[in-house]
Amino acid sequence: MTAAELTASRTGALRGRVRAPGDKSISHRALILGALATGETRIEGLLEGEDVLRTADAMRAFGATVEQLGDGRWRVVGEGGFSEPADVVDCGNSGTGVRLIMGAAAGFAISATFTGDESLRGRPMRRVLRPLGEMGATWTASAGDRLPLTLRGGGLRHIAYELPEPSAQVKSAVLLAGLHAEGGAEVIEPEATRDHTERMLRAFGARVEVTEQGHGRRIGLPGGQALTGTAVQVPGDPSSAAFPLVAALITPGSEVTVEGVLLNPLRTGLLETLREMGADLTFSNLREAGGEQVGDVTARHSALRGVTVPPERAPSMIDEYPILGVAAAFAEGPTVMRGLAELRVKESDRIALMAAGLAACGVGVEEEPEGLTVVGAARANHGVAGGARVTTHGDHRIAMSHLILGLASERPVAVDQPGMIATSFPGFVELMRGLGGAIGDEVRQAV
Fold first, then answer.
1. pLDDT at 79 over 50
2. Active site residue 319
3. What distance in Å separates the CA atoms of residue 399 and residue 251, rounded to the nearest whole number?
4. Got the DSSP string for 386-435?
5. What is the mean pLDDT of residues 202-231?
6. Are 87 and 58 in contact (CB under 8 A)?
7. Mean pLDDT of 55-75
């Protein structure tokens, strides 16, 4: 029995202009809101990764017409609500997809059973189920708050829900449920999280009221609102753009431009942190598309230095900490990252896996319950050793991050289960090869 791997080897300068795949968060929301709306929604630039395709299938299961018109071009026709699915709704590996869909489905008097792959079935759902239950939805599961579970919705009442911890997924689930709750819904968040749901609800014709409260916000969605189909332009995903940009920063002689990147200020925490580390990043062609700030980002090889990342910045870059760990490995001095409890319950325990992978590649790292400190190796004649085979536990971001590390390490770095990369970044290997990156297939005899 064989197991496919990918191996990244030290390469020369990376150069070129590329376009990141469509933003995953916005892609999920475009499909879900299109299905909830009345009429036709046309989507351009949809991410066609496995996670988003599962959401497209789910919207069909709930009664919407969903069809692909071309590369990244999709059409959704909704009837203004969800009907009961005839079969189990399988969300694959997508935590975002299942949590948002459960919120949307809770607003209707239907029963739906949700499941996912092995990784998703191991991830807790109570953070979403708690507020949905307070609104009047009920659920049953055979394994605590884990999938598979059956949700029964309808007859929801108003809620003013204060998030116990920052979570755009929980906030979005409550707002989507609030569309069909008596009196709507309010969410109070202690720290501002990505606001794509609020922006897109407005694009579909809903009234959303946002009030700043210290570092956080109060979001109100009045009840009794109907959505109308619209056109959605999906910008490039900053979480995906981070991989070629960091690769350029750590590889001598490199200059890479990623075009059409989403620059929503609640999603640019990584870019802000990299600039604090001394990264040569420039922004051009700034514009607004679909209610979002978009632009081209150019990264040039830079001498990076370690920094302490403010914990309150975590919501704006929660998916980018693995690749930040790679940048930190090539910096001078320690980079301290805290406030990362959510990383323990992502597709994998990302704190543990990044610590293990970096350590195996010769990087100094200290794991904390809710944080990570990476001691950079940028000293005279002291680079990152590499030379490891990294276990990813099927986590796409862990895999891509270590492949980027391998492009600038002394010895090659291999990752297992590379097929999972397609969940968020189809074409990742081809894109990096096009820039000059040495990433190759390798098949080894499984132990």
1. yes
2. yes
3. 18
4. B--EE--TT-HHHHHHHHHHHHHSSB-EEEE-GGGGGGT-TTHHHHHHHT
5. 93
6. no
7. 97
Q: Is the pLDDT of residue 343 over 80?
A: yes
Q: Tokens 């960091």: give the residue.
A: 246
Q: Residue 419's pLDDT is what? A: 86
Cα 302 from Cα 317, distance rounded (Å): 21
User: Average pLDDT of 7-31?
Assistant: 95
Give 324-363 as a DSSP string: HHHHHHTSEEEEEEE--GGGGGSSS-HHHHHHHHHHHTT-
- Point out the catalytic residue in the list 51, 319, 395, 416: 319
E strand spans, 242-350:
255-262, 280-289, 292-300, 308-309, 332-338
Which contiguous run of DSSP H or E holds residue 140? strand 138-141
pLDDT of residue 214: 82
* CA atoms of 109 and 29, how far apart (whole Å): 22
Are 253 and 13 within 8 A, CB to CB? yes
The residue ranges of every structural domain in the chain are: 2-22+236-445, 24-233
The predicted model gives 259-285 an average pLDDT of 96
pLDDT tier at 123, thresholds 50, 70, 90: confident
Measured CA to CA in angstroms, residue 259 lies from 117, 266, 429 at distances of 33, 19, 18
Q: According to CATH, what is the number of the domain 24-233?
A: 3.65.10.10
Quote the pLDDT of residue 379: 56
- For the record, the structure tokens of 371 come out as 């944080």
Identical fold between 2-22+236-445 and 24-233: yes
Q: How far apart are CA 166 and CA 189, in angstroms?
A: 6
Angle at 343 between CA 338 and CA 344, to 5 degrees: 110
How would you label 415-444 residue by residue, b for 16+ Cβ within 10 Å and e otherwise? bbbbebbbbbbbebbebbeebbbebeeeee
Architecture of domain 2-22+236-445: Alpha-beta prism (3.65)
Q: In what order do the strands lie in the sheet with 38-44?
A: 65-70, 73-79, 38-44, 231-233
